């Protein structure tokens, strides 16, 4: 079942379109990441979902409730949506418990206290209710912000760059904790980030933005391994482009030899194209008689980044152990080939 439906949404700012005819759906208990560079429109879409900026056209539905559409604009506080910000947005003069219970005004004291305690338990902050935000670490402050959003039992959570102010050492742990928390509570989420590493770890699907439009939507692994265009390919990681000619329905000839796919590629015999290969797909073997010459090698801890020259091309590979010889041979394991027309 669909939790959120965005249909043909456009938003304008200073007389120009920031979003243009954009459509996207989020299933119940699904986490979708809006990924892209600064200024591409992802935060604008988040604010439109929250009701913080108006739509020029289109509509937004949460389940079967129309939040925005022709003649309809529901107030932000009535949407049943929780929001978590980059800077936590906690009240410094209120305790942790008071921050979490801020949205529960009007409820009885006992009901409010029990709800706050339950939220503290959910985010593993038991016993910290009487502290103030400045007495907590960045990760703990973000947990308070999450507890405050969860205490009102939203159907959808919006997260705007929520991990960017967290120390690198604890960021991945917090990402996994929050993902498990949202999944455990059955809450759908829309998450904004410019970091592909955060997106891969946190999201079920990615929507990659460019200039107010979505270039491709899908599971992180599919976008990484089977990008639909060069922008998607290059945004999500390192790439090599090799001139290639189709020799049969499975294979291509290139400067590093014949490369066979794991499925038919659907291009005509003799077609001249460009083959995209990720650095991890180049399997190297040191060989002094090999056709590739080592240009540069960097040890990066969990892998080595290697640059090699071949017939005027510079190729990049990612390998687990450094090359000990100055020349190498390369193999490419069969995989679904990603082909683009020549520039």
TrEMBL record:
Cited PANTHER family: SPERMIDINE/PUTRESCINE IMPORT ATP-BINDING PROTEIN POTA (PTHR42781), SPERMIDINE_PUTRESCINE IMPORT ATP-BINDING PROTEIN POTA (PTHR42781:SF4)
Organism: Aeromonas bivalvium
Signal peptide range: none
Annotated ranges, domain ABC transporter: 4-236
Gene Ontology MF, one: ATP binding
Family annotation (SUPFAM superfamilies): MOP-like, P-loop containing nucleoside triphosphate hydrolases
InterPro entries noted in UniProt: AAA+_ATPase, ABC_SmlMolc_Importer, ABC_transporter-like_ATP-bd, ABC_transporter-like_CS, ABC_transpr_FbpC, Mo/tungstate-bd_C_term_dom, P-loop_NTPase
Entry keyword Lipid metabolism: no
Protein name per Swiss-Prot or TrEMBL: ABC transporter ATP-binding protein
Record's keyword terms, sorted: ATP-binding, Cell membrane, Ion transport, Iron, Iron transport, Membrane, Nucleotide-binding, Transport
Pfam families: ABC_tran (PF00005)
């Amino acid at each position: 079942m669909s939790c959120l439906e965005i249909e043909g949404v456009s938003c304008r700012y200073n007389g120009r379109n920031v979003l243009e005819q954009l459509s996207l759906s989020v299933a119940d208990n699904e986490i979708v990441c809006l990924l892209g560079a600064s200024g591409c429109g992802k935060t604008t879409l988040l604010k439109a979902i929250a009701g913080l900026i108006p739509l020029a056209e289109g509509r937004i539905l949460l389940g079967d409730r129309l939040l925005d559409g022709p003649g309809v604009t529901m107030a932000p506080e009535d949407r049943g949506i929780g929001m978590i910000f980059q800077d936590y947005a906690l009240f410094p003069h209120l305790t942790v418990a008071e921050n979490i219970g801020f949205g529960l005004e009007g409820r009885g004291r006992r009901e409010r206290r029990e709800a706050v305690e339950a939220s503290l338990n959910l985010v593993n902050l038991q016993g910290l209710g009487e502290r103030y935000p400045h007495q907590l670490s960045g990760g703990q402050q973000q947990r308070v912000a999450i507890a405050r959003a969860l205490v009102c039992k939203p159907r959808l959570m919006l997260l705007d760059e929520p991990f960017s102010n967290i120390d690198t050492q604890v960021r991945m742990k917090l990402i996994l904790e929050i993902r498990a928390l949202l999944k455990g509570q059955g809450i759908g989420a829309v998450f904004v980030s410019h970091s592909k590493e955060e997106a891969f770890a946190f999201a079920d699907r990615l929507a990659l933005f460019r200039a107010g439009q979505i270039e491709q939507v899908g599971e992180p692994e599919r976008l990484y391994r089977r990008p639909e265009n060069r922008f998607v390919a290059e945004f999500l990681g390192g790439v090599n482009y090799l001139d290639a000619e189709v020799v049969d329905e499975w294979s291509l000839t290139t400067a590093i030899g014949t490369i066979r796919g794991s499925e038919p590629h659907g291009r005509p015999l003799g077609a001249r194209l460009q083959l995209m290969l990720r650095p991890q797909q180049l399997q190297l073997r040191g060989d002094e008689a090999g056709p590739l010459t080592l240009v540069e090698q960097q040890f990066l801890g969990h892998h080595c980044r290697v640059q090699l020259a071949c017939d005027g091309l510079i190729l990049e590979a990612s390998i687990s152990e450094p090359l000990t010889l100055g020349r190498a041979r390369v193999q490419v394991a069969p995989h679904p080939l990603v082909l683009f027309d020549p520039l």
